[in-house]
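Predict the assembly for these two chains.
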Amino acid sequence: MELLTLADVKAYYRTPSGQIVRAVDGVTLSINEGEVLGIAGESGCGKTTLAQVLALNMQPPLYLAGGEVLADGVDVQKLPPEVKRREYRGKYISVVPQGAMSALNPSLRIRQFVADLMREHYSDLTKRDALDRAEQRLRALDLPVRVLDAYPHQLSGGMKQRTVIAISTLLDPKVLICDEPTSALDVSSQRSVLELLRWLMKEKIIRSCVFVTHELPLLYQIADRVAVMYAGRIAEVGGAEEIIFRPQHPYSTALVGAVLVPEKGMKERRVEGIPGAPPDLRTPPTGCRFAARCRFVDEQCKADPVERTSGTRQVWCWKPGASA
Amino acid sequence: MSETLIQVQNLSRLFGHGKGAVAAVNDVSFTIRRGQVISLVGESGSGKTTVARMLLRLLEPTSGRILVEGHDVTSKKNRESHLAYWRKVQAVFQDPYASFNAYFSIHTCLERSLGILEKPLSRDEKMATMRHSLEMVGLNPNETLHKKPFELSGGQRQRVMIARALMVKPSFLVADEPTSGIDASTRASVLNTLLDINKKLGMTIMFITHDLGLAYYTSEEILVMSKGKLVEAGLAEQVVMDPQHEYTQRLLADVPRLHSRPTA
């Protein structure tokens, strides 16, 4: 079942000087029940903007320029903001923001923060009940209950991140959007964050998860499906295994090629980065957006690539699977 | 075997006083040979950055010695000796966004760094040095020098940081998490830049990182730190493929990989 569907979504930013930044430019994507969808790509490719759209959290200067966002079959853009905020955000879709380090209010104990959040959504809930529920949840997640009495600065980075995830999932949202949840953490804390997410999925506290990161090995650890984004569009989407071991789009191939892991064979070859940088999305190039950095570029690539589907995989490239 | 460049002997650093004192670095000893690429690996809080800061003479050790080319540098504490030290030992820091004064052009930022040279350079010499080191890291000086830091991408800024360090022709470079702030796609190119410089100039490089993939790719030797102590040291191949210490084994198990996947 599709929990969240994007149909040809265009989400643009309006700059103060009146220019338009086409951060998400025609993305069609669905998030199914029971799956972890990974979104990969470099900085400046629109990953975070896509996460904002999925989180139903578009605030100026970001606006929806076209397309539909369907949550549970309902076009959420047509709902009054108040309903969207109270009934969808937090309950249906919840977010673990980028830099969860600063997602907590530094001047409130976690306890107060949690109580405020719960009572915003359930106005008849007493503070005691709210905290009881929070305590139960923390115990279930194997986190010490004492974090409720702490101020954010008293927690370590990994602990803070796990606390934020616990708070984000207090209302049992169907979809959890995680935007670079592990980027500031070391490997051990990364692992515990992944384990926590996996557990939440297994216990069906969340029904699906969107995991945004530029670290492919991390995605491989957790994602069932991966969407590779480039310059506001999806370059390739398919099963995690397929994308990482048999990438079809030259951009995915290059991303996979730039991965550093402590595995055999890593030391012998020279790992190449991707030369150049993603295009300026104020003036995106016509045709294939990756053409300027692609090794296999030719005349054909001046036109917009058409979608090619094989099984569960979709690729937008004129030469899928091209190799030197 | 080539000669020893750096010898760290029983280095310790305490923070705080009396009972509450924390030993961030506790009796650490190692040697670095000239021309070597070596990594110091550990989790957050393991004390690896404290070691880096002491190696850079930004922090005084509580006890222990650092010998550079056989001379004890920890005993000299005046400004002159610090400046002389920084002509030999330079750093690349983690956050390319915080490493530059946002008000200055790259030209000004780099020019100021040349101030530590013993013999003041003429304007032309300065310009030539700056252009040369920018070219070394693969940047076009004509396109870079007049820009302000915000006009460069993270990877470019990190390259400028490397160029800045190279200008004084140091014999030792400490790179503290040089790529954790930049994209995976750019990471390899920045590391390759450093490795090429190591080959071309024979410059010794120490990476401080929590990323074992990076350490394995770049380094000949890996040192592993945990809770202020050195727990394992050896050739990269041995440490990664056949870790002896329990902590290293755990650290390796935590690294996300491509060829093994947890069954959830």
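The mean pLDDT of chain B is 90. Chain B touches chain A through 40 residues (CB under 8 Å).
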